[in-house]
Amino acid sequence: MNLLAAADLNVVLHAERLFNLGGITVTNSMLLGWLTSLLLVGLFVFAAKRININASGRGLSLLELIVELITNLATDVMHDRKKAIKYAPFLITLFCFILFNNWAGLLPGIGSIKYHHEPLFRAWTSDLTGTLALSITSIILIQIYTIRELKIGGYLKHYFSNQPWNPINLLIGFIEVLGEFTRIASLSLRLFGNVFAGEVLLLVMAAITSLASPVATLPFIFLELFVGLIQAFVFTMLVIVYLALATTQHEEEPGQVSDHSVQASAVGAVSGSSSKG
Question: Which pLDDT tens digit goes with each residue over 16-34?
């Protein structure tokens, strides 16, 4: 989207095709997503080499803040610090990837730089196929982690009880399986809708204000920076909840966490984070 000088108001839901690479169609959202991924990998590698017990610096402090935030959030939901640390790399990567892509779509020139009359860059999270890929990947990884945690028997018990031949239990099991697909839809649509709507708002404001767009859109850009952070947090929070529910034993034993307690912890964690913010 052109954030600073929108000469023409052209809102397109789908990502524009740029070129073919080895038989694969590359879109502008894929291109910016790859560049953002390379930037993230570079930052993580740099931080891994520089970080130590006495490490200092704003960049490293910010990274440590993100790591602690996500790890503590997972701990509050799962009630297990070791378990939270175990899944922290996946959750931190997910949060950072979404956050950086949300913010990348707000950079000047995104949407205005053309390639064969099409925008060269578009935020990954403003493309429904991009958010759908994120949601599918997250849910698949949750299934893999669940099998590793509970084994095949425990994994099946998560959906079907000890008596799957019971018609009621069988029906509930199929509803649980269907729930995984609804989670994919809700995760992808929520993220896409909020990010895309924000970019459309900026585009409309830039078109309306014309030459004054750099000043007129500035408050909305700051608003979208905040919205991008919140959406990355909400997506990651929901994935943590789904992961905690999936990796919890179906039959509760002493010391185990029930589905209701996990959900209550999730609500409390979100409320606590909101109040701190």
Answer: 888 888 888 888 889 999 9
Please give the distance of CA 133 from its chain centroid, rounded to a whole number.
10
Where is 251: in which H helix or E strand? none
Q: Which pLDDT score, from 0 to 100, does residue 275 have?
A: 45
Helix (H) or strand (E) holding 188: helix 167-209
pTM to 2 decimal places:
0.80
Helix (H) or strand (E) holding 220: helix 218-246
pLDDT surpassing 70 at residue 234: yes
Q: Check if the beta carbon of residue 29 is closer than 8 Å to that of residue 15.
A: yes
Residues 6+ apart with CB under 8 A from 206: 2, 3, 4, 5, 6, 213, 216, 217
Residue 185 in tokens: 């839809």
The Cα 70–Cα 205 span in angstroms is 34
Rg for the chain, CA atoms, rounded: 21
pLDDT digit string, tens, across residues 74-86:
999 988 899 999 9
CB atoms near residue 24 (< 10 Å): 8
Element holding 210 (H helix, E strand): none
